[in-house]
Amino acid sequence: MIACRIRFFPLALAILLLASCAHNGTPEVQNATQEVWDFELTGDTRGNCKMLLARTKVQNDLFRIAGSFSGMTYDYVGGPGELDCKFNGKLKNRNLDCEFTGWGDMEEVVFLNGRFTGTLNDEEGSGEWQVTHTRGSSAGTWKMKRRSL
C-alpha cells in the first residue's frame, strides 16, 4: 500500500504542476493588436504572401512584433512553390528588424532561416530581406500594404 502511494505521488505532483502552468500565457500576446498585411517579395524569390502581424507596445515608439506569412512564390533556384514562415522582431521609430524561420515547398522542401529589415508605418512598409536554405541563399526587397478592415 505504501509502495503504491509512493509511485502515485510523483505522478499526481506532475499533473498538478502542469495544470498550474498551463494557464500562464504571455500577456504580450494577449494584449497585441492583430493586423493583416499584403507582403510582396521581389528579387531572387518573387511572390505575394498574406502576413499576420501582432504588434505589442513595449514603450513609446518601440513595439515587439511577431506573426507569420505564407503564399505562393517563385524562387530562382527552387522554382514555384509555397512559403510558410513565422517571424519575430522589433519595430523602433518605424525601423523594422525581424528574423524568420519556416519552410519552402518548391522543387524540394527546404528549411528557411532569414531576416527582413526596413521601415514600416501604420499603412505600408518596404525594405530588404535575406534567407539561407539547403539549396543556397536568396535576397531581395519587400513591400507591405495593410489590408483595410
Question: What distinguishing features does this structure have?
Answer:
66% strand; Lipocalin; 17% helix; alpha+beta; 8-stranded antiparallel beta barrel; 2 helices; 149 residues; 8 strands; elongated
Structural write-up:
- Helix content is 17%, strand content 66%.
- It has 149 residues and is of the alpha+beta class.
- The chain has a single domain, classed as Lipocalin (Beta Barrel), CATH 2.40.128.
- It has an 8-stranded antiparallel β-barrel.
- A hairpin with a 2-residue loop joins strand 2 and strand 3 (62-75).
- The chain is elongated, with a radius of gyration of 21 Å.
- It starts with a helix and ends with a strand.
Q: Let me know the average pLDDT.
A: 84
Beta strand count: 8
- Tell me the major beta sheet: 8 strands, antiparallel, barrel
- Radius of gyration equals 21 Å
Q: Topology, pairings included?
A:
Layout lengths: L1 H21 L4 H4 L2 E11 L1 E15 L2 E14 L3 E14 L2 E11 L3 E12 L3 E10 L2 E11 L3
Antiparallel strand pairs: 1-2, 1-8, 2-3, 3-4, 4-5, 5-6, 6-7, 7-8
What is the structure about, briefly put?
With 149 residues, this protein is of the alpha+beta class. Helix content is 17%, strand content 66%.
